[in-house]
Design goal:
With about 280 residues, the protein is α/β, with parallel strands linked by helices. It has a single domain, classed as Metallo-dependent phosphatases (Purple Acid Phosphatase, chain A, domain 2, 4-Layer Sandwich). The chain is about 30% helix and about 20% strand. It is built from 8 helices and 11 strands. Strands 4-5-6-7-9-8 form a 6-stranded mixed sheet, with helices on one face. It has a 5-stranded mixed sheet with strand order 3-2-1-10-11, with no helix packed on it. Strand 8 and strand 9 form a beta hairpin. Helix 2 runs parallel beside helix 4. It starts with a strand and ends with a helix.
């Protein structure tokens, strides 16, 4: 395959309880139907509240199954709970093995690897990092094997949480905040990735669109499909708008297109949950 077209969506937060979020997803679905990429990847927070509502997970799976192309999934903190952090308040709902198993029972996977257009694509479960649950160690060993198996090919890594704000040397409060992959796993992951030909790290979680390059690696933060977070709840570090990201991979190169689907609107979190 000389070219591989991939569409990244993220933070869909689907539930039967908020029709506005479903409407934004349907606008994105129509865009995907028209553009017909080779694959759609949802980088997490697929559901509104997966830890307490399997129905949210199943509703999200139902809507994705109706898309005209294949999909792959990664869990976010709203799907299986969150990982602990060394800075700030911990999550009231920590990720557990049981919550991960529930996600896998609905979506069939929480990590994956495949190759296309001479690239190796790796999907990682970032919200079990630093938890100490058995699947965390299993994933660490699995990831090392997948990176080694690329044998020098360019690698595109997908995960829910960004690795860092600007650099691996961000101040402690930025390095360990719940917004990013937490320490100490973050430092180990950055070191591991640096030993391989990782050209792209694609994430979501922040509900802001961002695109920057550090060293040889381009970091793409996909915006939320569902909603934006108002400034009084979250500082501005990117572009606050709903949307998606389209990629075109060719051997040794790739292109990125930041897109807003026709009909997609900027729903504020305050419209869903008043502050």
């Amino acid at each position: 395959m000389a070219e591989f077209r991939l569409t990244q969506i993220s933070d869909t937060h689907l539930t039967r309880n908020f029709t506005k979020l479903t409407e934004n997803f349907r606008s994105v679905s129509e865009h995907i139907d028209a553009s017909r990429p080779d694959l759609v990847v949802n980088t997490g927070d697929v559901s509104w509240d997966g830890p307490t509502s399997r129905a949210d997970l199943e509703f999200a799976r139902e809507l994705h199954a109706a898309l005209p192309v294949d999909c792959r999934y990664l869990p976010g903190n709203h799907d299986i709970g969150d990982n602990p952090t060394a800075f700030g308040a911990g999550s009231p709902c920590p990720a557990t093995e049981e919550l991960r198993d529930t996600f896998v029972s609905v979506f069939s996977e929480d990590r994956w690897q495949f190759e296309a257009a001479n690239w190796r694509f790796i999907g990682l479960n970032s919200v079990i990092m630093n938890t100490g649950i058995p699947s965390e160690l299993e994933q660490e060993e699995w990831l090392t094997a997948q990176l080694e198996g690329a044998r020098g090919k360019p690698i595109a890594l997908f995960l829910h949480k960004p690795l860092f704000l600007n650099t691996p040397g961000d101040p402690e409060e930025a390095a360990t905040a719940i917004r990013f992959v937490p320490q100490p796993d973050r430092a180990r992951l950055v070191t591991l990735l640096g030993a391989y030909n990782v050209r792209l790290v694609a994430s979501g979680h922040v509900h802001q669109r961002r695109d920057f390059t550090y060293a040889q690696t381009r970091h793409i933060w996909a915006p939320s499909v569902g909603f934006i977070v108002p400034d009084h709840r979250q500082d501005v570090i990117g572009v606050k708008e709903t949307g998606l990201v389209e990629y075109r991979f060719r051997p040794e190169s790739f292109e990125v297109r930041h897109v807003r689907a026709a009909g997609q609107i900027n729903i504020s979190l305050g419209e869903l949950i008043p502050s």
